[in-house]
Write a structure and sequence with these properties.
Belongs to the HAD-like hydrolase superfamily. CbbY/CbbZ/Gph/YieH family. It is built from 10 helices and 6 strands; from the N terminus they run βαααααβαβααβαβαβ. By secondary structure, it is α/β, with parallel strands linked by helices.
Length: 245
């Protein structure tokens, strides 16, 4: 623990229960789509297996491939209703933004306690999310001022950074914090996220089990898995992080 100086948080499902909102948004998109095209019905298992943690368009393409469907990729400007991967992804974005406006979002209390503890111990922190909605979600959750570094889907697109399960977005966040990967903790709830942490040779990959399964997270790269970040005693970091390398 004496070598760990930064904590890199995924957003959806780690800091905020937006994963639950996203899950319902994907269901609202794909359940009627599967019915309309006589595909095998969409289930929650599809979210975890094909969508969770990935950039939005990649999630669309992976789910469609699981049903033997191949659509033109299209462009990010495609409006919902067109028959392209991007149009479907933009349709999901409309659904989830409407849900955020109508329902709001509160962070996980245990995650906020853990965030308070690690920053109190001197750790540098960042958010690493595949979502392009990360700034809006952080603002809605009252966490925007807690993170000077946010590497989200917008940053990845602008800087041409590969998304999870590639480690590149996490590596970029560590670079912006000026902390080597080996001295950073990756905190993830998604298969693709713990795979990214493992691939980037980070100091610790901490899995948060929000439904994927602890064994599955360990199998794909998590070193430690907890049900809630509030269960961790982060006081062991006090005085041991945040210093110069």
């Amino acid at each position: 623990m004496s070598d760990l100086r930064a904590v890199l948080f995924d957003l959806d499902g780690v800091l905020t229960p937006t994963a639950e909102v996203h899950m319902r948004a994907w269901e609202r998109l794909f359940a009627p789509y599967a019915t309309a095209y006589s595909l095998e019905p969409y289930t929650t298992a599809d979210y975890f297996a094909h969508i969770d943690g990935k950039p939005r368009y990649d999630g669309v393409a992976t789910f469609l491939a699981s049903r033997g469907v191949e659509l033109p990729w299209g462009t990010p400007d495609d409006p919902p209703g067109e028959d392209t991967v991007c149009a479907l992804g933009n349709g999901k974005d409309e659904i989830v933004n409407r849900m955020f406006e109508q329902e709001g979002i509160d962070p996980y209390p245990g995650s906020v306690r853990f965030l308070d503890a690690v920053t109190g111990a001197g750790a540098r922190v960042a958010v690493v999310s595949s979502s392009r909605n990360a700034p809006a979600v952080l603002a809605a959750a009252g966490l925007a001022d807690r993170f000077a570094v946010v590497v989200d889907g917008n940053v990845a697109a602008r800087e041409h950074i590969a998304g999870k399960p590639a480690p590149d977005t996490y590596l970029r966040a560590a670079d912006l914090l000026e902390v080597p990967a080996a001295q950073a903790i990756v905190v993830e709830d998604a298969i693709s996220g713990v795979q990214a942490g493992a691939a980037g040779s980070f100091g610790l990959v901490l899995g948060v089990d929000r439904g994927v399964g602890a064994d599955v997270l360990r199998e794909h790269g998590a070193d430690v898995v907890v049900a809630d970040l509030g269960d961790l005693d982060a006081s062991v970091l006090a005085g041991r992080v945040g210093g110069d390398a």
